[in-house]
Amino acid sequence: MEATTKRIDATLLQSNQNNLVRIIGKCESYDANHQQAILISNGSIKLDLSSAAAASDGSNGNGTLQVNKNYEIIGKVSHNPSDLKVHVYSIVELTDNLNLKAAEKLVQYTYKVPELFYQEA
Known about the structure:
Blueprint: E1 6-8, E2 20-31, E3 36-40, E4 44-48, H1 50-55, E5 70-77, E6 86-93, H2 100-112
Parallel strand pairs: 1-2, 4-6
Antiparallel strand pairs: 2-3, 2-5, 3-4, 5-6
Pfam family, one: Rep_fac-A_3
Subcellular location: Nucleus
Organism: Candida parapsilosis (strain CDC 317 / ATCC MYA-4646)
């Protein structure tokens, strides 16, 4: 993807409406029938997996998630403030030994010191 993706967590959903984002978190629930999931990343984030399932080439498990597994998600935050969710484009399974507190700190530092994380065009 050529577009820059901001690294966020649940606390930053509101301020990133309609933006392409990157989220690290743990899957709390997964509903295969409705292609929806809940990811925990410093709070709960609703995921709409219908785009990931349609775009899947098989490399990410056809857009499926497993409860209690860690993932990095790339997607677009909805622009509806009354129903904030992330429309998922890409799913990468991460190690079970992931330190979620460190991931939260990473998000904080990307906003405190953005010049370390984002290149200007």
